[in-house]
Amino acid sequence: MAGADILIGIDAGTSVIKAVAFDLRGAQLAAASVPNRYQAGGDGSATQPLAQTWDDCAAALRGLGDKVPDLARRTAALSVTAQGDGTWLVGRDGPVGDAWLWLDARAAPTVARLAAGPANRARFEATGTGLNTCQQGSQMAHMDVHCPELLDRAEVALHCKDWLYLNLTGVRATDPSEASFTFGNFRDRRYDDTVIAALGLEHRRTLLPEIVDGAQLTHPLTPEAAAATGLRAGTPVSLGYVDMVMTALGAGVYGGAGDVACSTVGSTGVHLRAVRAQDVHLNAQGTGYVICLPIPGIVTQVQTNMAATLNLDWILGVAAGILSDVGQPVTHRDLVAHIEGWLAQSKPGQIVYHPYISEAGERGPFVNADARAGFVGLSAGHRYPDLIRAVAEGLGMAMRDCYAAMGPLPAELRLTGGAARSRGLRGILSAALDAPVRVSERDEAGAAGAAMMAAVAIGAYPDMESCIAEWVTPLLGAAEAPDPDLVAAYARLFPAFSAARQALPPAWDALALARAPKGD
């Protein structure tokens, strides 16, 4: 399009949908966002209305148009990524009920049954991905037994970004990343009969959509979507990969010399390393993900913690509650400002903390819905700063646990998320891996990763490597080397962390039984 000099990246997360404008060389111009709401039920459900999600996406795009003059004419292409996993069913007349999100835990008994089955290892060898309640395959297998009418009414099973792409373009499709780690093989990025059979879903195969690589193919924005978003009909739209790898791509998981890795340490923790498909390390426990990058032959190995900085929110919340009870209310921001000081007042490597604070347990590098957080090694001499340090160190130990499950520890860590803003937390994470840390200056890495796919698809760059060289590498900060004393302390702490983690499952099982309502 003549005069088009803007790329739009859409990142539809669990709690907020963002639309971000970039120029063709990767500079961020403006961003608009809309809160994204979901409903949680006592039965473990976590759902989101499909129509609401599309309306919120369209509103975010209109909001971006309010901030960028002549956005419609200037937009060369847009791309969409979104929260991963989950099940978004669409039938002949539109959505079939509400979407089951990645947070939905209803499929837990089905996961336990399938994971214990004889076909599960073959499924894992193909997908590179451990079975858990987040995934569309698990959820559809559960629906097939417990509420088959949902699948009977559906014509296609989509993910969040796929649903938004359908509304933008009218095309029912998914991308190679979610297709291969859910129902396919990461080596050829196609659906795999062995995987579909292992999930017991051969008779539901017609629900699986076409696989489209948004770095190679776009579809035009429909007139209906143009009217809803304020953009021009016919604007090329790229279907991005899942948000985890789009964020990692924008933050620097690929590019540069040596074995680099990228962790997003926010409310949850996502730990990725880019490798050639033939070099993937599949662990004996059958956990983690293998997720394709929009680069031929390159995939990411992924382990994810259910909770990361949520653990810090919890320990700070304890202090806030106590102070409020005695008439000294403080804000979360007030307490966050004290973290660096508390870390300075405490001695490293003295207490083990397992950061499994999520009600859903843990999924990386092991899967246990009953796993819970806890301290090991407390004594009467420990004070609140020691607890703060132990929680922060627990994030580092959990990160190390995840990377160890993927092979050797990485030589460099590229960090994004809330933890990246704290020098003290960066130092702990760096020392836990014994690797220098680099932080990207990119504000919206997920939207940037998606926009990078559109940039390659429309020919603004000949390939993703050349796009990375302009969009990503210049924004990486200087390497921060780990403190040798901290490295030594955490080398001594990790065996204690690991031993306790491996010994605790019987205690978690007993605690879950003790907490269960009578009669269950």
Describe this entry's structure for a reader:
- This protein is α+β, with helices and mostly antiparallel strands.
- Among the domains are: 110 residues, ATPase, nucleotide binding domain (Nucleotidyltransferase, domain 5, 2-Layer Sandwich), CATH 3.30.420.40; 222 residues, 2-Layer Sandwich (Nucleotidyltransferase, domain 5), CATH 3.30.420.
- Helices cover 40% and strands 19% of the residues.
- It is built from 20 helices and 24 strands.
- The strands form seven sheets. Strands 3-2-1-6-16-15 form a six-stranded mixed beta sheet, sandwiched between helices. A six-stranded mixed beta sheet has the order 19-20-18-17-23-24, sandwiched between helices.
- It is globular.
